[in-house]
Amino acid sequence: MKSKTRLPALLLLLLAAPLVLALGPAPYPAGPVSFAVYPPEPGAVRPGERFRYRFSWNGIQAAQAVWETKPAPNRPGWLYSRADGTIVGTVAALFSANDYLASCLRADTFKPETYTVRIRESLDYYDMSVGFNHRAGIASRTRTTRSLTAAKTYEFSNAYCPVGTALLIRSLPWKTGDERRFEVIDGNDRYLLVVRGGAIENLTVPAGAFRAIRLEPSIFRLPGERSRETARYWQRQRVKDQGRTANMTSFAMWMQLDPPRAFLKVRTDVFFGHVDMELVEMSVPQAP
To answer: Least packed by Cβ within 10 Å: which of 12, 39, 96, 276?
Structure first.
């Protein structure tokens, strides 16, 4: 499990996977994991939409991020979705970051063709790309640092990248008590993400006042080979997770109840305090 906390990466939920590993209310699986197919609701995600977020660390402004989804150039039926994050304010005097995450994915399913990451930080520097072969059920990753390039492959059954997962979650109607499972590959690992619908609340963020649903995520590391999803694997994984020092002790996320179902707020408690993400501004084209 990684030990670094990347503020802009919190933009897409689930991009904090290495930090929230084994955190959440869902129980550990006991064997092979199956993943349902969730048809996206048409029009919930709208090409041309743009969301701007701010991050604070213990109440101090720390980072900003912009997430934009557009039609992929010269590729009808495909989207290009990208999130850019930078460290700002007082924190920028101590730590620099200029990162982005991007994916080219099908507009009707949010299944990714490629997922790319660029990290430019004071303590970390790399480029990573993941190609998804959905017919073969293989994801191929290349990660390049200043000194070396490493490749890795993952087997999967119904996988999404973090960007596609976030879009798919937004495209689905949620009510209290709903629970859905997602298979996520971020290039560092393969994960089981379980999301439960929590309480419906009135929530005010800088972008305005909204009816929101609280989403409760649980996330577990899956093996790179599907044949290893056995009862023994999960027993050993539970022991490993119990022996780790938690980087993050709680994770709460609120999403707009109705389309476009923007992510409104994330609140995390970590070992050095708390980090908050809030929606500052959104621009969403009118539904056709």
So the answer is: 39
- Cα distance between residue 54 and residue 46, in whole Å: 22
60-71/98-106 β-pairing: unpaired
Rounded to 10 degrees, the C-alpha dihedral 252/8/55/64 comes to -150
Q: Quickly list H helices, the chain.
A: 162-171, 231-242
CA distance 85 to 52: 10
For residue 246, what pLDDT is reported? 58
d(C-alpha 54, C-alpha 86), whole Å: 10
Q: What angle is formed at CA 153 by the lines to CA 149 and CA 157, rounded to 5 degrees?
A: 150
Residue-range domain boundaries for the chain: 7-283
What span, in angstroms and rounded, lies between the C-alpha atoms of 87 and 94? 10
pLDDT tops 90 at residue 233: yes
pLDDT at 268: 81
